[in-house]
Every structure is written in structure tokens, then in C-alpha cells.
Amino acid sequence: MKIVTFDFEEHGDERGILISLEENHNIPFNIRRCYFMYNTQPGVSRGFHAHKTLRQVLICVKGSCRVLLDDGEEKQLVTLDRPNKGLYIASDTWRVMQDFSEDAVLMVLADQLYDESDYIRDYDAFLRHIGKKPERDA
To answer: Could you report the per-residue pLDDT of 2-39, keeping only the tens digit for each?
Structure first.
């Protein structure tokens, strides 16, 4: 699996740092939705789903978390721990966000509005969706 991350350009001086996010420039799609996760309790993981068509960029704007990505062939763990790093997640990728620091704020940019029918929330259904046979079906 190829992991795609972005190092966003920082603009700063003695006043602080600014990062600009622009659709179809340093974000590889039109941004249709933005949401945040914060106050995630210790030991709690989020996600446990894939999307049929939705694409996302995840940015931990404060604190840190780790994202487990699974394409049905392999799994990789990516740490997000700085606000100038973005993680691109394509459709047909299972994701689990975990190991949130106490102060973590995870921002998600998406190329579509919320659509429950685009979610795949069962791992075996995800495997069937991408043409893999679930272990219990083997």
C-alpha cells in the first residue's frame, strides 16, 4: 500500500505560523465537508469503516494520533503529530484512528457531503467490496 502524506508549507514570523489549505492545490480534491474530532477519551478508537467513493485528508491540528490504514492486502500505521502534515485516504481503504493524545484535535477534509450509503462499516463487507474473500468465507 502506498501511503500519501503532505507536508503543508508553513508561513511564519515572530507572530506565529500560518498554514493555508486550498482545494485542488495542496488538498487534492474539492473540499465539500470539514469536521473535527476532539476530547476523545483514553483508549478509545474511532473509524472502523471504509468509504466506497469518498476521499479524505486527515490533519492532527493539535496533539497526536495514529491511523491504521488497511487496503485488504496490507496494513500500515501512520502517526499524525504535527499540524503541517496531512494524510490522504483514498476510497476503498479501511481506517481506524487510535492512540489519541489527551489534547488531540483531528481535522478531516472530505470531497463529499455526508452520505451514510457511502460507508462500509463491516470489515467482511469491506473485503467483499474490494474483491477479497473474508477469512470466515474461505
So the answer is: 899 999 999 999 999 999 999 999 999 999 999 999 99
Residue span of the structural domain in which 14 resides:
4-137
| Burial bucket for residue 106 (CB in 10 Å: 0-12, 13-18, 19+) | buried
Q: Do 22 and 28 contact (CB within 8 A), yes or no? A: no
The amino acid sitting at 97 is: M
* Residues marked as catalytic: 49
Question: Could you tell me the CATH number of the domain that includes residue 54?
Answer: 2.60.120.10
Structural domains counted in the chain: 1
Give just the sign of the alpha carbon dihedral 116, 88, 47, 35. Answer: negative
